[in-house]
Design brief:
This protein is mostly beta strands and 128 residues long. 0% of the residues lie in helices and 50% in strands. It has no helices and eleven strands.
């Protein structure tokens, strides 16, 4: 059974940092491209950041570029999202997701419909 278990997040003042983590169980983590998405109240779930199966490629939404960093540790089956210089508009539920990179393309997918498994979500609230 595949499970993505998230941790981290919480309430933080604007300008501060937070890290969310996602551990993958039941899949060969080293072949999975990983993505982070977020969903604010009343809005659609949007792509935030992603990392290729081998960690060589990362991609970020323009809204978080330069502030967020996505990384992975294949030995720990874990992907991280380090969020710095947080803004109130970053407030949302954050979700990790996995997609098998069967052909080892080494790319990051931004389309949420392509991801196969999802974490349970982690709330991040940034106060002004």
């Amino acid at each position: 059974q595949v499970q993505l278990v998230q941790s981290g997040g919480g309430l933080v003042q604007g300008g501060r940092s937070l890290r969310v983590s996602c551990i993958v169980f039941g899949r060969t983590f080293s072949t999975q491209a990983m993505g982070w998405f977020r969903q604010a109240p009343g809005k659609e779930r949007e792509f935030v950041a992603g990392i290729s199966y081998d960690g060589k490629t990362t991609y970020y939404a323009d809204s978080v570029k330069g502030r967020f960093t996505c990384s992975r540790d294949n030995a720990k089956n874990t992907v991280y999202l380090e969020m710095n210089s947080l803004k109130p508009e970053d407030t949302a539920d954050y979700y990790c997701a996995s997609k098998d990179d069967f052909y080892r393309l080494g790319v990051v997918w931004t389309d949420r419909s392509l991801y196969e498994y999802w974490g349970q979500g982690t709330q991040v609230t940034v106060s002004s």
